[in-house]
Amino acid sequence: MSRFVTDRLIFTPGEVDLARSPLAGHLDAETYVLGAFNPGFTRLPNGNLLMMVRVAEALRDPIRDGHVHAIRWVAGDKQGSGGGSPSGTGRYVLDPWPLDQADTADPRKFMLHGGGWKVMALTSLSWLLPVELSPDGLERVAVHYDRAIAPAHDVQCYGIEDARISKVGDRWWMTTCSVSPERHATTLHSSDNALDWRFEGVVLDHQNKDMLIFEGLIDGRYWAQTRPLGDLYFAYPPGSEWRAGPSINLATSPDALHWKPHLAPGIRPRSGTVATARIGGGAPPVLTDKGWLTLWHGVEPHEIVGIYRTYWSLLDRDDPSRTLHSDDTPLLEPAPELTRPIEELMYLHNVVFTTGIVDGGDHFIVASGEADLACRITHIPKAHFGL
């Protein structure tokens, strides 16, 4: 059971109206909502909260006629590369791959054999759905299908994933992961009301995920956490407190558009535990009296995906590369009691993926994706962090 009194699912796959999906009417195949999860999270000017929900719309039967199929967005009448369609016009198509060329063990994706390196395709395509909540985050107020964000450029042809929203001054910034054969990149949107978004382009290149912009400037500059990925990491020396592998790095920018990696590292996995053998950013860091509070995920190796838990750290307010405190006890763990009412939809277990945090007075309101399936809201007292 959760240690927090207020901890519940607030949005689930059954609450998405696929008749209003950007994909509606495009495919000669049935789709369903694989997951409605990993929401970007912020407070709107009217005081309500906004979740920018990742809707993973999947093929009901991806395998048929000896092939496994992927959904792809195509700009206009083009099939090749290019700049995409600024207006967002385009269509969705199905790409068939022979089954003998694919590994379909994971229901979310399939790996293609050959080539000398990993090549992957998806059985779903993700788009972003704005869901407005009450000020405490515990009731749905509206679902803004008219403001959904769907692929509009070739760099997004396999979908838009995992929004993270930060408010800096009077402007909102939203990072997303855009997926295509060209690159697995971080893209940026900006807004003056958190509902109408302007696409700003690619800001981090291939396989640099979980970009979180700090909610405030440091010495006049924007800061962000990033998480580059790769198949090769150099070893720390024997006996080091650090474990080689994916870690949370830092970057700075004069304008939030042009980013430079910071020289010093950010948060690194420790060698003393496998619970955080792989880590990455969670919620955008927020400033407190004791420094920047950052919620991040640690992944313990287990079966195909691993066990995802949420942890927290405090970073120095003037130099976020300095970690003042990290708690080795998970803040949030996967909660099967929350997903039990929708257990028939489960395809993945042992995952909580925190993606947003908002001030709620004497507590923080934290948004997470639960089991890559639904959106979870947790109220966490500030006293839990010593604040």
In short:
1% of the residues lie in helices and 49% in strands. The protein is an all-beta fold and 387 residues long.
Write up what this structure looks like.
The protein has 1 helix and 26 strands. The protein has a 4-stranded antiparallel β-sheet, with no helix packed on it. Strand 4 and strand 5 form a beta hairpin. The relative contact order is 0.15.
In the CATH classification, which architecture applies? 5 Propeller
CATH superfamily: Glycosyl hydrolase domain, family 43
The main β sheet shows up as: 4 strands, antiparallel
Please, how many domains? 1
Provide the residue-averaged pLDDT.
Answer: 94
Structural descriptors:
26 strands, Tachylectin-2, Chain A, four-stranded antiparallel β-sheet, globular, 387 residues, hydrolase, 1 helix, single chain, mainly beta, Mannoside_phosphorylase
What is the fold's blueprint, element by element?
Elements: E1 7-11, E2 31-43, E3 49-59, E4 63-64, E5 67-75, E6 90-98, E7 102-103, E8 109-112, E9 119-122, E10 124-133, E11 140-143, E12 160-168, E13 171-179, E14 184-191, E15 198-204, E16 208-213, E17 222-228, E18 249-253, E19 260-261, E20 278-288, E21 291-300, E22 307-315, E23 323-332, H1 336-339, E24 352-359, E25 363-370, E26 374-381
Antiparallel strand pairs: 1-26, 2-3, 3-10, 4-5, 5-6, 7-8, 8-9, 10-11, 12-13, 13-14, 14-15, 16-17, 17-18, 18-19, 20-21, 21-22, 22-23, 24-25, 25-26
